[in-house]
Amino acid sequence: MSGPVLVLVGPPASGKTTVGAAVARARGLPFRDTDRDVEDESGSTVADLFVERGEPYFRALEERAVARALAEHDGVLALGGGAVLSPASRRLLVARGRAGGVVVWLDVDLPSAAKRAGLGRDRPILGVNPRAMLRQMLQTRAPLYAEVATVTVPTGGRTPDDVVADVLAALPAGAAR
Question: What would the CATH number be for the domain defined by 6-170?
């Protein structure tokens, strides 16, 4: 099957970039992050896109970035936390899982996510009341992450190494270069 060996989904501060980069290193695979793709394409940061162009504009760029990365990337792929809000992206992820692809939901609890996010870093979606926004985001997006995931790995209160070990265990034995 062509496409990514592994796709990581989950909310902000769940560890997608940290875990994805570590899994890619461990397996000798390239790592790609769709938020970075959007930034490269737009010439702007995700935070600035939210402020200057609005969330719908960003989500349209993100949807295209996800489709492109799923079609052309052959390593470890981390999606932005809100990528699952797009029905088109969810359909692609569900199809990937049904075709034997590995889509891992990095599931994080509120206290761990709040601590990791620092609630002051560049997280534009978290807005004015970050803890309440994060709580609502975790609750409303959980069914969407569950819909697309083939494997769920909890990350709350765990070290990156422990999470990486669980994700590596979920990959097929031949998933390396």
Answer: 3.40.50.300
